[in-house]
Each structure stands twice: as structure tokens, then as C-alpha cells.
Amino acid sequence: SIASPAGALPIPIARAGISVARVLPALTQANCLVTDVLDMIRPHMEFTFNNILSHINTVFVLRTKVSNSSIEANTELAKEHTRMRLKGQMLYVGETDLVLFLCSPSVLNLDDLNRRGLYLSDIPLHDATRDLVLLSEQFEAEYKLTKNLEILTDKLQHTYRELEDEKKKTDRY
């Protein structure tokens, strides 16, 4: 949850979900500002409460500022690769004057999910990301099986050729 300050003041974080707080412990610190931990990738605008409210029906993509992995990356490309992207929707809760960011991590497969310290159960059931991760794993497993089948077929053909050669040798003698 993102608290509502007046105007364009820095936006404090009121609450963080269990999974997000586990991966980004800085969010649980007192007086943590959303701009200290996250950059707004989309939509392209200044990260203020009023701008969020004016684009409330837009898909938001936020990215962590620092690596959430325990391994420090040296190169800029490696740093970019370890930064987690969160994609979701901002909801304004008028009773509490807060904005709720319902999001999911952008990941490619289970390895990517685990590398970020997350589990499949951390992704909401209704989110298509969960299905995409599972489909990616299924495709990868099928690809490995196909590759192994091709290797075994090549070995079998080679063995068959050797057997034919041995048969020819025995027939000659």
C-alpha cells in the first residue's frame, strides 16, 4: 500500500505483502519511500501520488532499484538482469486514502522465480504469470526429452551400422 501525501511529496509505503517484504526487506523499514526502492518503468511519468491517481486504469510496471539477490553484480548488464520487475494495477482505497498496488513479478521460468527468492505459490492463482511459468517448464522438459531421444536414436543407428559391418565380416570368412 502506498500512502497519500499532499501534492508531489515523496510517497511513503504503508504496508507490503508477505512475499514482497521477504524479497525486498527495505519495504518494511519505517519511513521507507516507494522511490527509494522502486523505479516506475511504465507509464512514463513522475512517480507521484496524484500522477498515479490520474492514471489509475493503466498497467503499471515498477522495477527494483537494487538487486534483490544476495550476489552482488559487478557489470551494469548483470545488475539490470537481477533487478525484479513488478507488473500490476494500482487501486485507490478512498476510506484509507491509500493506493494498493496489486502486482506479480515478471519472470520467465521457475529458475528465474527461484533466483529472485520467490516461489510459485507467491504468484496469485488468478494471474496468467503462473500459467506461463508452468508452460515454460513443460516446454523445457519436452525439449530435453526430444533432444535425448535424438541422441539415443543416433546412437542406435550407429550401433546398427556397426552390427551390419560385423555381419559382413563374418559372412566373408
Automatic annotation (TrEMBL):
This is guanylate cyclase. Residues 13-172 form the Haem NO binding associated domain. PANTHER family: GUANYLATE CYCLASE SOLUBLE SUBUNIT BETA-1, GUANYLATE CYCLASE SOLUBLE SUBUNIT BETA-2. It comes from the Eukaryota. One of its GO terms (cellular component) is guanylate cyclase complex, soluble. Its EC number is 4.6.1.2. Its cofactor is heme. Keywords: cGMP biosynthesis, Heme, Iron, Metal-binding, Nucleotide-binding. Signal peptide: none annotated. GO terms for biological process: cGMP-mediated signaling; response to oxygen levels. The keyword Lipoprotein does not apply.
